[in-house]
Design brief:
five-stranded mixed beta sheet, alpha/beta, about 230 residues, 11 strands
């Protein structure tokens, strides 16, 4: 069972190793090189690609173009968003640490898919630009085809970047009258708590999802609802 989780908008710019990305033998290195070549042709479109000011876009663009020369951190140290802030990694047992790196995969616009311990440089590139969902789909689908079951905790845009014969998509909702609405920002918090629960307890069966308790969310067999 693999659990797919999103990256975070927020990232640490600190590098915790001296190893440069070109020294890591990353499994999708050739694909990253292809994306960089595409980025090199988009100098006139960088504000649209990065969604920020021209000055900041130039800095982000230059950093992306130079990722192979840049130093790395583990992915779990690189990502700093709401989901990741809920993970109590220091409390993980050795068994939970092994489960976490073996069962969790993080999707990424630039790197495709990484393990928590994969070494990556600082970068910024969303999955919803440059047709990246279509670009990554054959590679990620092939990599994931080896797995019997996928637990998908991804946002919709990332879900378009792969296919698999056995996917359990899990979302977080709040009841509003007779309707279910996305839990929004709070959904990121509970998602992080759920990922933490999976790792701490080394969960390997969907039936055990009902044991998760946080902020009145409960498992209805398909999703978590409050």
């Amino acid at each position: 069972m693999l659990i797919l989780i999103p990256p975070s908008e927020g990232k640490s710019s600190n590098n915790t190793t001296e190893k440069k990305f070109h020294e890591t033998n990353f499994i999708f290195s050739e694909q990253v090189k292809e994306i960089i070549e595409i980025l090199k042709t988009k100098n006139e479109e960088i504000e649209k690609i990065y969604g920020t000011s021209l000055e900041k876009s130039k800095d982000l663009h230059e950093n992306n173009l130079n990722v192979f020369s840049n130093q790395c951190s583990k992915a779990i140290e690189r990502y700093t968003g709401v989901v990741y802030n809920q993970l109590d990694l220091n409390s993980f047992s050795e068994e939970s640490k092994l489960y976490f790196n073996s069962n969790i995969r993080i999707f990424s616009g630039l790197f495709g898919m990484v393990k928590p311990n994969t070494l990556i440089p600082d970068y910024k590139l969303k999955m919803n630009v440059l047709g990246l969902t279509k670009f990554w789909s054959p590679f990620l689908s092939n990599e994931l085809s080896k797995e019997e079951l996928i637990i998908d905790l991804l946002p919709e845009i990332h879900r378009k970047a792969y296919e698999h014969k056995n996917i359990k998509k899990v979302s977080f909702y709040t009841k509003k009258g007779d309707k279910l609405v996305s839990a929004g920002h709070n959904g990121k918090v509970v998602k992080g708590q759920f990922i933490n629960f999976l790792a701490v307890n080394c969960i390997n069966k969907i039936d055990d999802f009902e044991k998760f308790e946080y902020d009145n969310y409960s498992w209805d067999g398909e999703n978590f609802i409050r």
